[in-house]
Design a protein that fits this description.
Helix content is 46%, strand content 16%. With 147 residues, the chain is an alpha/beta fold. The protein has a domain of 101 residues: Rossmann fold (3-Layer(aba) Sandwich). The longest helix is centred in the middle third of the chain and has 22 residues.
C-alpha cells in the first residue's frame, strides 16, 4: 500500500525532514506533499496577479493562490500531519486540520504539551496527538504495517 501524506503547519524547523527521513529509513511507501515552505515565496504567491498597495489585498491574493495547492493536496491525501510550533500562531494549520475534519480525512497533530489547551478541539478530531516527529514515524510505520 502506498499513501499520500500531507505535511501541514509550522515552517521554521526541520520536522518535515525528520519525518520524511524516518519513513525512508523504514522503507515506508509514502509520497509526501506540503504547502510552499519558503515564507517569502508563499507571501509573494499572488504578486503575479498585480502589485497591491495594501498588505491586506496582497495577503488575500497570495492566500488564494496558495490555496490552489493546499486544497488540492488536502483533498487527495490519505492522511495529514499538522504541526503547531511554539514561535508563531499557525492559524493556517488549524484551518487545514478543520478542513481535514470536514472532509473526513484522518490527521495527526504534532505539538508540545504547553499548547494542549488552545488546541483541544483540533486534537479532539485528530486520530493521534504526537510530540515528536519520531512518534509520527512510529504511527505511520504501524499504520502501514502489512503484519
Amino acid at each position: 500500500m502506498e499513501w499520500n501524506v500531507y505535511l501541514s503547519g509550522e515552517i521554521h524547523t526541520d520536522w518535515r525532514d525528520k519525518i520524511i527521513a524516518g519513513c525512508k529509513a523504514h522503507n515506508l511507501a509514502i509520497n509526501f506533499s506540503s504547502a510552499v515552505t519558503n515564507h517569502e515565496a508563499s507571501d509573494a504567491a499572488g504578486d503575479v496577479l498585480g502589485k497591491e498597495d495594501s498588505s491586506f489585498w496582497r495577503d488575500h491574493k497570495s492566500a488564494k493562490v496558495n490555496a490552489i495547492r493546499i486544497k488540492t493536496m488536502l483533498e487527495s491525501c490519505d492522511l495529514a500531519v499538522v504541526r503547531f510550533g511554539d514561535k508563531y500562531k499557525q492559524w493556517n494549520a488549524a484551518f487545514d486540520a478543520g478542513y481535514c475534519a470536514a472532509l473526513g480525512t484522518p490527521y495527526i497533530t504534532l505539538h508540545d504539551e504547553d499548547i494542549i489547551h488552545p488546541l483541544k478541539e483540533v486534537d479532539g478530531s485528530a486520530m493521534a496527538w504526537t510530540t515528536t516527529p519520531e512518534q509520527v514515524v512510529e504511527v505511520l510505520k504501524y499504520t502501514l504495517s502489512q503484519k
